[in-house]
Amino acid sequence: MTDGPDVREGGEPPDLQRPSIARVYDYMLGGNHNFAVDREFAARMLERLPGVAGTFANNRAFLRRAVRYCVRAGVDQFLDLGSGIPTMGSVHEVARAIDPDTRVAYVDNEPVAVAHSEQILAGLDGVSISSADMRDPESVWSAPGVRDVLDLERPVAVLMVAVLHFAGPADDPRSILDGYRSRLVPGSLFAVSHATTDLRDPADRAAMEEGERLYRESSTPLHLRDRSQLADLLSALTLVDPGVVEMRDWHRDPEEPEARGVGEALAVVGRVD
Ligand SMILES: C[S@@+](CC[C@H](N)C(=O)[O-])C[C@H]1O[C@@H](n2cnc3c(N)ncnc32)[C@H](O)[C@@H]1O
């Protein structure tokens, strides 16, 4: 195939008229699960935001830090909402390096991301991919891949990494979060990274404003939130130290230096008590 990846037969066909952020993200991380429309969007993004690939890599680095934090806190099951294409250090690999029995339910609503996840994860025990919309928690909980992999009598870590900002006010993000939290036992965790302009560096703020304009051209526009809005959305959780901070400041790992990105996100981990 000359223009992008094969997708499985059946299932929803990918929308090739508009860039998909899952596939743009894959391209930025060096993957090949993307189409011309995604690469053109990525090229525009790189032109208007040189260095943005570093920001994407930093988001992925936060994901890895958060996963390690959750496993070390004793949580060995993950629900990864908006999981994308599991390139570069996916959740089950990072978690299983510490606890080989970790179970992971990946969820995405982008057909190419789901199809490639199916290929990559085929044959792995205790790991699944489900096609569902994270804005509809009931559809996520009832997906066989989620139901069969996660034991809701024990704590689960819910990952909403670079995805909650795709839920706008009309989606009622508070009720989305409640739809997950209300099913989880104490000790469960939420790890969130979220696009924002609430940043200390003016160059980062300007980059995020530009990013928000760009995303309006994709199938998933961004809804930026500031620290207090994000903390407010998560107010039913106990926030783990240091609370809502710039992503680069959340449990920095000296072993894993940050790429120089443009723009930043907010990051936070919260616990169900
Ligand atoms: C920027 S990528 C982040 C991927 C991964 N979480 C990470 O941080 O590396 C956002 C992902 O969220 C997915 N996504 C966006 N809106 C979604 C929705 N309503 N339900 C499920 N997935 C969604 C996109 O398809 C994409 O794969």
Quick structural gist:
The protein is α/β, with parallel strands linked by helices.
What's the CATH architecture name?
A: 3-Layer(aba) Sandwich
Helix content: 25-40%
Instruction: Supply the number of structural domains.
Output: 1
Counting H and I runs of at least 4 residues, what is the number of helices?
10
Overall geometric form: globular
- Give a count of the beta strands, DSSP E runs of length 2 or more: 8
What is the radius of gyration? 17 Å
Question: Would you give an account of this structure?
Answer:
One of its GO terms (biological process) is methylation. Keywords: Methyltransferase, Transferase. Pfam families: Methyltransf_19. The chain has 273 residues and is an alpha/beta fold. The chain has one domain (21-271): Rossmann fold, CATH 3.40.50. The protein is built from ten helices and eight strands. The chain has helices at residues 21-28, 36-48, 52-72, 91-96, 111-121, 137-142, 144-149, 173-181, 202-215, 227-233; strands at residues 77-81, 103-108, 127-131, 157-161, 189-195, 238-239, 245-246, 265-271. Strands 1, 2, 3, 4, 5, 6, 7 and 8 form an eight-stranded mixed β-sheet that branches. Helix 1 (21-28) packs across helix 2 (36-48). The longest helix has 21 residues, at 52-72. The protein is globular. Residues 1-10 have low confidence and may be disordered. Bound molecules: S-adenosylmethionine. S-adenosylmethionine is lined by residues 21-22, 25, 59-60, 63, 82-84, 108-110, 113, 133-135, 161-163, 166, 220.
